[in-house]
Amino acid sequence: MVDGQADGPRPALADSALPALLENNRRELRGALGSFATGITVVTAGRKLPKGMTANSFTSVSLDPPLVLVCVLRSAALHDLVLEEHDLVPEEKAFAVSVLYAAQEPLARRFADRGRPRGAREFEAVETEPGRHTGAPLVSGALAWLECALEAVHDGGDHSILPGAVLDAGRGPDGDALLFHGGKFHRLAPSTV
Prior knowledge:
This protein has 193 residues and is an alpha+beta fold. Helices cover 17% and strands 37% of the residues. It has helices at residues 17-24, 26-34, 77-83, 105-112; strands at residues 38-39, 41-45, 51-55, 58-63, 66-73, 94-99, 128-130, 137-139, 144-150, 154-156, 159-171, 177-181, 184-188. The strands form 3 sheets. Strands 2, 3, 4, 5, 6, 9, 10 and 11 form an 8-stranded antiparallel β-sheet that branches. The longest helix is centred in the first third of the chain and has 9 residues, at 26-34. The protein starts with 16 loop residues before the first helix and ends in a 5-residue tail after the last strand.
């Protein structure tokens, strides 16, 4: 590409051909998407019996008003918990996000493991603090954390796109961030320059 001009015309795909192309090239698509490095978070919800999951589909949306979003697989246990009304606070639909340090890779692996303990045991080996606003567990010692009120639910194919209004946020000390790229965990050290 030179001066914003494409090198040549790109072939157009008929709308009906795209699903077949993606189905036949799922591995190629996964590889292409995996080329984009992302940070790693643990997303949590619930006060009484919380649930958590590892997510790299998290991003900031707006500073004014403060909004973020996370994409959650519709079949994930956390999905329905975020969308349900809670006993303690009627009509509360909320989630929390803990941004992980590189040293917290074992936590990322734990909450990505579908065979991990569930129910009361899901957080038994994890040091957390309840969020002030949501009551959802925040991972102790995380690089950063946010508590969010669910703003809406958007269809995202096999995922739901969940924008959240930031209720509170904080940061830990600077350190190596945990990243995901090419199907593997990596670390990103802060610049010393």
